[in-house]
Amino acid sequence: MQEQTQIFGIRAVIEAINAGETIDKVFLQKGLKGELFTELESLLRKKSINSSYVPVEKLNRLTKNNHQGVVAQISPIEFHDLENLVVSVMESGKTPLFLLLDQLSDVRNFGAIIRTAECTGVNGIVIQKKGGAPVNGDTIKTSAGAIFKVPICKVDHIKDAVFYMQASGIKVIAATEKTNNTLYDVSFKEPCAIIMGSEDRGINPSILKVVDDKAKLPLLGDIESLNVSVACGAFLYEAVRQRLS
Questions:
Q1: CATH number for the domain harbouring residue 19
Q2: In the chain, pLDDT over 90 holds for what percent of residues?
Q3: In this structure, which of 64, 88, 113, 157 has its CB flanked by the most CB atoms within 10 Å?
Q4: How far is CA 230 from CA 72, 114, 162, 200, 221, in A?
Q5: Same domain, yes or no, for 223 and 132?
Q6: What is the Cα–Cα distance from 97 to 49, expressed in whole angstroms?
Q7: Above 60 in pLDDT, residue 149?
Q8: How many domains is the chain partitioned into structurally?
Q9: Residue 46: which domain range?
């Protein structure tokens, strides 16, 4: 386990990326120009590293040091290779249960989901390299340390993970209200992966087109949605219930 660390300065961040550091996110000052800055932008695109352009005030809050318009966060965990993880779980004789998070954005929801995943025996969590919640101190705290126990994989696109799961004999189930099936109508007993969508947009429509099954939670009140971490808990414990019965 690495400690949560920041790197600041354009050249320092470039060197860290080239050295293979696990960079979780890079914050770039809006409007910054220059040859070295352009080199960094190109490297971030090439390596598919999560980045965002922010006002200088945000960078000043992140560090008191001379950041030169760039602050990078090193991930406190090492990410796993998806293909290697799936193979090792299949070979272990366990019935695989994976969780795919389609650009979940809130770090506390992310941490809460990781904690529930650890409690329900999830074999691995898959997130997208760009557009999702970072792995930071808030994630660690909300997960109650579970983040160090559940393997997490990063992929370029969640759809890539869906296709790989399916090719490996793992059924992919989308948690979505765009179906007539409730989660009690769907079997979680065989090898499966559950997809949870982002807080505001849900699961990407292009992903919904390629999943094996869809399921929703029955909502009996007037509010038409649940917090994503609560919904995820309901799905995971239904999988546990079916597998224990």
A1: 3.30.1330.30
A2: 68
A3: 113
A4: 31, 12, 23, 15, 15
A5: yes
A6: 27
A7: yes
A8: 2
A9: 5-74
